[in-house]
Specification:
This protein is an alpha/beta fold. It contains ten helices and eleven strands. A five-stranded parallel beta sheet has the order 3-2-1-4-5, with helices on both faces. Strands 6, 9, 10 and 11 form a four-stranded mixed beta sheet that branches. Strands 7-8 form a two-stranded antiparallel ribbon. Helix 3 links the parallel strand 2 and strand 3. The longest helix is centred in the middle third of the chain and has 22 residues. About 2% of the residues have low confidence. Bound molecules: xanthosine-5'-monophosphate.
Length: 327
């Protein structure tokens, strides 16, 4: 089935639940017509786009959709658990959950170079997904959370979802129900489908996950510290009402230590680097003015609650010249 590659000029922007429901109804009919009684495979990362596609397809074809969630061990705290909770427990989806943490972290051991780390994560993701897909029988379609900016900005393949790189003999016909939508419309549709707010309004998160924030060669203890510190930052931003106001905020942890003191003893630890930026297109970014009281609270919690961290710093560098991620 040939899917249109251009958004019609007169297509109404989906801004309300009513418009979203109309879109959902149309897509449910289109998907049923396309898929009939066949099976569809989806790599469900837990990001906004793939989650909305999953919910839409569950509505359209129920258990004919097989979702595969690969936990590469580089997810933020609680994210994989949420995917299982929402899709398996609440929406009763056909979900295959793969904990591939050891595979990824073993391969990444001692690899410090950013591009090499990315290649390993991307390559291994395809391998794991491919292995799982081969175990399943009768799959005819591959669903993807491609959205309109992906089509405008690239060759239409959602590169960071990685499934664009599946081997030659694993090519399927595509199901891409949100391919003509902008991100804000995908969120309205996700809302209308009843997905949890924190999933629908999730901030952007790189495909290689915490792998780009655990700087240098990843170790399990430093990755754990990063995940815990990041969870504290997110919790405190939520409490301070900053979650909806700041575009992206996270922690990076470099691979060096400095001297500190804890309980009267020398305490060497890593610094946690906070970053909170605003942007519209991620090409440039400005620094958000976070109240000092919030910064102090986050710092106090991280240095007392997170093993291995002994300093917290706030990165004030706009983009350019600093990229958003430290990597
Ligand atoms: P930089 O660091 O280049 O990041 O200023 C710009 C935005 O892109 C996000 N980012 C990614 N997003 N897959 C993604 O979907 C990736 O591999 C990736 N790497 C970086 C980054 O978080 C920021 O929002």
């Amino acid at each position: 089935m040939d899917l249109p590659n251009k958004r019609p000029d007169d297509m109404t922007r989906i801004t309300t639940v009513e418009l979203a429901n109309k879109f959902i109804e149309e897509q449910v009919a289109i998907v049923r017509e396309q898929v009939k009684d066949k099976k569809v495979l989806l790599a469900l990362s837990g990001g906004v786009d793939s989650s909305v596609v999953a919910a839409l397809l569950i509505k359209a074809i129920g258990k004919q959709l097989v979702c595969v969630h690969v936990n590469h061990g580089l997810m933020r705290k609680g994210e994989s658990e949420q995917v299982v909770e929402v899709f398996k427990n609440q929406l009763d989806a056909n979900l295959v959950y793969i904990d591939a943490t050891d595979r990824f972290l073993d391969l990444l051991k001692d690899v410090a170079e950013p591009e090499k780390k990315r290649k390993i994560i991307g390559g291994e993701f395809i391998k794991v997904f491919d292995e799982e897909a081969r175990k399943l029988e009768g799959i005819s379609f591959l669903a993807q959370g491609t959205i309109y900016p992906d089509i405008i900005e690239s060759d239409g393949v959602k590169a960071h979802h990685n499934v664009g790189g599946l081997p030659e003999d694993m090519q399927f016909e595509l199901v891409e129900p949100v391919r003509l939508l902008y991100k804000d419309e995908v969120r309205v549709v996700g809302d209308a489908l009843g997905l949890p707010k924190e999933m629908v309004y999730r901030q952007p998160f790189p495909g290689p996950g915490l792998g780009v924030r655990c700087l240098g060669a990843i170790t399990r203890d430093r990755l754990h510290a990063l995940r815990e510190a990041d969870a504290i930052l997110r919790e405190e931003f939520d409490k301070a009402g900053l979650a909806g106001k700041v575009w992206q905020y996270f922690i990076s942890v470099p691979d060096f230590k400095s001297v500190g003191v804890r309980d009267g003893k020398r305490y060497e630890g890593w610094p946690a680097i906070m970053r909170a930026v605003n942007t519209t297109d991620a090409m440039t970014a400005t620094i958000e003015e976070i109240p000092y009281s919030v910064l102090h609270k986050i710092t106090a919690r991280i240095i007392t609650e997170v093993e291995g961290i002994n300093r917290v710093v706030y990165d004030l560098t706009p983009k350019p010249i600093g990229t958003i991620e430290w990597e």
